[in-house]
Amino acid sequence: MKREIVQDLVQFLGMIGIIGSLIFVGLQMQQTQQIAIAGQVQARAEMGVNRILNGLEGNLDANRLFNYANFDYEELNEEEKLIARNMHNWIGIMVENNFSQYQMGLFADDYWEQQERRILNWWNRCDLRSSGGRIRSFQNYLDSLPDECAE
Fold this sequence. Notes:
With 151 residues, the protein is an all-alpha fold. It has five helices and no strands.
């Protein structure tokens, strides 16, 4: 009788071990998939950024117009306005990418707090804001922010 109890206990512990291993493998697969998706999001962001930055390479105005505090949009000439819009679009691609990675759990909360301030500054630059296509979750996030551009 005791031998049967020991065998049952060993079988039970073996099953628990197998179940635990399967759960661990499943979690690892989920994490791997999440990292792969984040890699794809990052790659798409890099393509968009490269497209914008290639046209600005070596342009000192691009560096000056990167910081919103350095200029009044209405006082810029047409070429400078184009550069400012491109820089704003570049920042938009980056903050959307950061948002996606935060949603996937790949950003620490303290880093995300810094990104939130950057997103708010970017979003509330009314003279540069575009109505371009954004992923729905990011647009929903933007819609939840205080909007200094609302009339």
